[in-house]
Amino acid sequence: MREGGHSAFVTESGATLEYFSGVRWRRSERMFGLVIPLQGAPAFICPAFEEERARELIRLPQAEIRTWAEDQSPYRRILEALQDRGIRTGKVGIEPSTRLFILNGLRELRPAVELVDGGEISYGCRRTKSALEIELMRLANQITKRTYQIALAELQEGLTESDLRRRISEIH
What we know:
With 172 residues, the chain is α/β, with parallel strands linked by helices. It has helices at residues 15-21, 51-57, 74-84, 100-108, 119-127, 131-153, 161-171, and strands spanning 6-12, 33-37, 43-47, 64-68, 91-94, 114-117.
């Protein structure tokens, strides 16, 4: 973020949120997101009725959870989280896979911050692998390769695609 001149990064549920926080949250029509400031504690933006579940999943002790009720704007919660961290102007990177309705919701509030493509932040972090990550990827590759070897050796006439899929899952 510092290299790109960003003050913060915002992502919604999905692979990037899971990468940065360890929280796996299915996308829905209700926005669940994460604000990661350059300095300071991150903030999760969560539907109020999901707060208990979010608290069970979030393992970042310094993180704040900001909820929004059905008659409130989750986008306003994002901007409030930024402002409370001293971010009132400057560039805020938005995860490229963020759905358009979320980006439009933020833009409609006419923030003083500049909402920009945050791909260099998310992709930049995710493409750099540690020795452990590389070893885990190799292990996953070996497991997958061995799984298919076993499954293909068991192929026989009459085996359905569903049966094969189930067997591959069992072997994995």
